[in-house]
Amino acid sequence: MKLNIEIDCTPAEARAFLGLPDVTVLNDHLVAEMQKRMDANMASLQPDELMKTWTSFGAQAQDQFRRLMEAAVTGAPKG
């Protein structure tokens, strides 16, 4: 026996029917906080800022970054 039931309702109605909490306010707060943090860190995504960070670590960090990129391209870690 196969039984198909189709229910036409909104997500809020489904949550209320199943007794689940409404997390809309919490979700809105979380999204706003993530946007605020991304805006605050946007400067670190600028190419000139990235280069300053990488070059400040010296040749060892640059070599490690090169190996990381090679591993990403080939799919195998380089020693």
Automatic annotation (TrEMBL):
<dbReference type="Pfam" id="PF20099">
    <property type="entry name" value="DUF6489"/>
</dbReference>
<dbReference type="InterPro" id="IPR045502">
    <property type="entry name" value="DUF6489"/>
</dbReference>
<protein>
    <recommendedName>
        <fullName>Ribosomal protein S1</fullName>
    </recommendedName>
</protein>
